[in-house]
Design goal:
Layout (H helix, E strand, L loop, with lengths): L3 E6 L3 H12 L2 E6 L3 H10 L3 H4 L8 E4 L2 H5 L4 E4 L6 H8 L8 E4 L12 H8 L9 E4 L4 H4 L5 E6 L3 H11 L4 E6 L2 H23 L3 H22 L10 H12 L4 H10 L4 H8 L4 H16 L4 H11 L4 H9 L6 H9 L6
Parallel strand pairs: 1-2, 1-4, 2-3, 4-5, 5-6, 7-8
Antiparallel strand pairs: 6-7
Length: 348
Amino acid sequence: MSLRKAAVITAGSMGTALASVLADNDFRVILTTRTQEHADEINRDRQNRKYTGDFRLTENVGASVSMEEALSGADLVVFAPPSHAMREVARQAKPYLSPTAAVIHATKGFEPETMKRMTTVLAEELPQIDPGNLVVLSGPSHAEEVIQRCPTTVVVAAERLDAAEEAQDALINSYFRVYTNPDVTGVEVGGALKNIIALGAGLSDGLGFGDNAKAALLTRGLAEIARLGVAMGGHALTFSGLAGVGDLVVTCTSKHSRNWRAGYMLGQGKPLDEVLRTMGMVVEGVKTTKTTYTMSKQYGVSMPITDQLHEVLFAGKEPQLAVGHLMGRVRTHEIEEIADAFGEKWIL
């Protein structure tokens, strides 16, 4: 029996990890790459060393520089480029993407220029796909652990339940558990904004502030995420789930997190340009901080952590001074701020 075909765009760390999951689920998978050298490494050596180290891919995974080759006959397509590249790769895919293909994206960020969510970008560039069938995958899922088949739980969201369930069926297995959720906006906002708080958590650790400070940062950061997410149309409960608190915890506390590592270096006094050069891979939280800072003003949402990180990243503010401003904010009642963030009405 011939295997179902899946295409994964592109061959970064998460794309490769999801290709491995699909291969374990009896898909024949083609990863797209920008260079023939990169494709040759995957096809010849069964490895993607830059992104997934020494892990060996199964024979069900191949690679190609040709979008046409990757997408021709594909039953399932996963988009996993950096957020700033999503529109361009979608344009490249458009001529070869079947209107009946299931489309999932696993990118956590906004388009920098337009501040649009990734499903919005895909809907604009792929008119042959019903927007209600576009699926977002998010949750606590470091690619380094997924590809090692460590137990991982994620969520897939789509406007149409059958589209989310189709993605769930394609991806779920003994180590990769998949839940469904109808809240596309909330899942995308949670996945994007947790990277901002992870930068702050790394910065706090780099300054040597300890666990108390980081716990406070995660808690108040979740309130900021929920506050903007609800204002954008997301459901408050989503931020208590895998795409909210789950992804926030793993990204703010793990050595695998690029955003945490970047924040840590900033906390140790390294300038942003040097940090980004050292990382060598996209740090989504940096661009997301700039975008979210603007969005918070447009929506009239209070996001003090995001405001201070924006000052540190783009205005040269000293991290210690930013912390002082956060700690010195006007006193308030916690329950009121929680109620405000999650859209609840409390009578005390």
